[in-house]
Amino acid sequence: MSFLLYFIIIALIPLWAQMRVKSTFAKYSRVASSSYRRGAEVAREILNANGLYNVAVEEGRGFLSDHYDPRTKTVRLSPDNYHGHSIAAAAVAAHECGHAIQDAKGYAFLRFRHALVPVANLGSNASWILIMIGILFHFSGMLLLGIIFMGAAVLFQLITLPVEFNASNRALDQIAALRLIGHGEEREARKVLNAAALTYVAAAAVAVLELLRLVFIFTGINRNDD
Fold first, then answer.
1. From CA 102, how far away is CA 174, in angstroms rounded?
2. Which partner from 55, 65, 121, 175 sits 20 to 30 angstroms from 140, CA to CA?
3. 40 or 137: whose pLDDT is higher?
4. Catalytic residue from among 41, 58, 59, 96
5. Rounded Cα distance, 6 and 8, in Å
């Protein structure tokens, strides 16, 4: 595979995922849920139903900036989802509450991901410096060290996948059990969550492809040195 083709592929995968999530969210953010609850109300009801009265629900900033902060025990929803009455707002709010439930129950993959954060950050910051030195000066040992550091960051991306999928499953269970959306709306909520999950799948796929490319470069350098 040529470098140009490879570059196009790794550029298009995340771009396609972002376009998919934005188009799906835009579609279902225009469809009001039958319960007509705001995203903030959906989140609060799910948290209360699970005994998580200590978890706050706050309005965040930015488009699709929704997240759960385990340090402050806070679900932050982007303005559209905090105030919105749509199926998309309910689905996203429920998903973030899924992370809060994971945190409360000590979900293993979430705990593992939290433990990996400092290692992944170090790997992301240091790996490319080591890799570039290794490639430019044909220092295979330096390149290998960079690949190991990058491997830690890739592992973080892979561990994120079960965390996100599990949060979505919990979200769908909660909004159905608490009747926060109508029975016929579950399919639409699932589409929103599946589209959002694509961004994590795309990021993991690109990370794995880049790691494999560097492994091939490393083996090539070692072969030439022999």
1. 13
2. 121
3. 40
4. 96
5. 5
